[in-house]
Amino acid sequence: MKSCPECFSEYEDSVERCPDDSATLKSIDKDPLVGTRLADRYEVLGVVGRGGMGVVYKVRHELMDRFMAVKMLHSHLVSEPEAVKRFHREAKTVSQVKHHHIITLYDFGMSSQRQPYIVMDYLEGTSLKNIIKDEGMVPFERADHIFQQVIDGLATAHEMDLVHRDLKPENIMLSRNANDSDWVTLVDFGLSKLRDPKQEQDAYQITKVGDVCGSPPYMSPEQCLSSTVVDPRSDIYSLAICVYETLTGKLPFSAKSAIEMLDAHLYATPTPFNQALPELKVCSEVTHVLNKALLKDPETRHQTVQEFGAELHDALSRDALKLRTFKHRIEVANFKDLVSEAEALHKATLENEAIKQVTAQVAKAAADLDGVQFMRNKESSNEQRTSKSNKILSDSGWMSRFQRKGGEEDGEAGSGEQQMDSCPYCHAPVQSGIKFCVKCNHQLTGPVGQYSPTRPSKGDGQGKGFSSKAKVATSKSSSLSQIQKILTLVLIILVGYGGWTAMHNNELMSTISKLVANVDKK
Question: Which of 166, 188, 235, 319 is catalytic?
Fold first, then answer.
């Protein structure tokens, strides 16, 4: 554990600086009093906590066999008369105030080391500070229950002219009592003072000029000015800061050091309650009550803690209802947004599925069309190659041979007659269509013989019928016609399906209607 040398608050070993005054924390050695006996009847079991005035121990009364709490003045303060006076004052004031929400004092004495101590109730619970730290913002209803008990105890103390002067969440203890798990007990009256009827001017002044007492985040402006006399309205200011922190988890003033915090109490404007968090913007009632309680001039604040408590209770009740309504509206709006998002997502999913189906069908049809076109191109290419080959054969004079061969395949009898020309150089016989004379090796540049479209047979000059190759070409042309008919039918089906889909798409039809209307207007 570590302790702050300024405020003596305790923190875990992982914390380096005090969050209240930014002082560097120091490690706490094992307390030498733990394990010993005090006043021959109290067994010291352990340390409960440390404060600015002293250390609180958990002890067991050996004769009564009962757990109690012992608060002992710090050893380094024993030599300071003012500190000893304050400690005696706490014992005196707490012993005279009897209230179920104020700690009960049982005994007072001096240790063997001349350290004064007081014996009080041992509370099995936790502080409001730990509740805020562990659980965060406290709900309005629970906060109202807690602070009405605090106000009840303070009202009794103020009626006895007792000012606490150190109200903060650490000094508001919560424990279980019967069926109430948030039973409040006010502790640490070390800075309090009973009013002395003989001293009217210094009725509540317990320090010399220049001495500042209290915890900086919760001190009233009059406490910051040490020469100013404080009264119960100072407790109202401190209590308002406790309420603010309990409901928001934040302090109304921002400061990096204790000096800056004191300056903020004197001159700065607190952050309005309804601006501390976005969800609290509807809490105008609580904002008004806390703004009044945090005014710099005590004369403009609530004049009694009962007045502050009544206004706080009404404001919390009204704003709690407004806050629930506001949160419900936000939840409904968020739910509607989720529903709209889900519907849009579902619609988009359906549209995507429809688009995928149409795309797949179009892709399939396109693939079929590509296949048909490929076959047509292939057949056309074959026909072109056949035509080109025939032309080459025709130009070279070989066509008559293929025609004769085709005639022989068809069973046609007879011998074909070849046309012959003579070489102009050596007058040797040369077959018609040949452009080179074998005998004289001359290139023939004269007219080339052409074969007749009808093949002569037996000199009758009659043309013969189609060969088998011609018949195959004719059958291929018939197949191509059938493929064209099938392709036409597929296109008609696709166009019909696309039209049917478009007619059932409301958004598309609406868009087309708007376009038609715009065209008509023009």
Answer: 166
